[in-house]
Amino acid sequence: MGAGGDGTTIRAAVGTEVAALVTLIESAYRGDSSRAGWTTEADLLDGQRTDAEEMTAAAADPDGVLLVAEDPAGRLLGCCRLQRRGELGYFGTFAVAPAGQGAGVGGRLLGAAEDHATAWGVRAVEMTVLRQRADLIAWYERRGYRRTGATRPFPYGDERFGVPRVPDLEFVVLEKPLRATAPPPTPTRLSPGST
Question: Both ends of the chain: CA-CA distance in Å?
Fold first, then answer.
């Protein structure tokens, strides 16, 4: 997938990185350490954001890709997951280390996921974002995502997704259409006398 001008590389994750990925995701969303970045959900949720079982499944998913961004020293800076779901690519498991937020890593990861979705030939990328995260929704909207009008309930009672601190959590569905991926045109030869 390549390296950026700053030496940051985006590539597929490997199974041996599961523990490091769980730590990265938890640091971006949960607890006081997440407050160093702007993606924290610490005021909305306690408990875990992910676990080793979920990340192991993501890394091995034959219908998806788990991408990581790493610096030249091999330190993980961020991650995201893209799953093929019929005519949609579903984007999630998106995290950037709090100290590195605002440096462009998230935008590069999102772009790499969209490139994968385009190569798959899906018509759009879909995601769900907590309705309360207006700042994050606005960030996605600046990158071409729009609210579909659909919502999905938060899984209250399933602590694998966190322990809610507020009673009205729900997800909004965002979607971005992808450019059409047409096959290259077939060259045609004009016969003599044709115009």
Answer: 44
Query: CB neighbours of 67 closer than 8 A, spacing ≥ 6?
Result: 1, 10, 11, 12, 13, 79, 80, 81, 82, 109, 112, 113, 116
Residue 170 vs residues 50, 122, 165: alpha-carbon distances, Å:
18, 26, 13
Query: What is the rounded CA–CA span in Å between residue 9 and residue 115?
Result: 15
Residue 32 gets the label, from left (phi > 0), alpha (psi -120 to 50) or beta, of alpha
Alpha-carbon distance of 175 to 96, in angstroms, equals 21
- Whether the CA torsion 50, 56, 59, 64 is positive or negative: it is negative
Work out the number of other CB atoms within 10 angstroms of the CB of residue 190.
7
Q: Are 141 and 133 a contacting pair, CB within 8 Å?
A: no
Domain covering 9-177 assigned CATH 3.40.630.10 in the classification: no
Predicted TM-score (pTM) of this structure: 0.85
Task: Confirm if 155 and 104 have CB atoms less than 8 A apart.
Answer: no
What's the pLDDT tens digit per position in 66-110? 999 999 999 999 999 999 999 999 999 999 998 888 889 999 999
Kind plus residue range of the DSSP H or E element containing 159: none
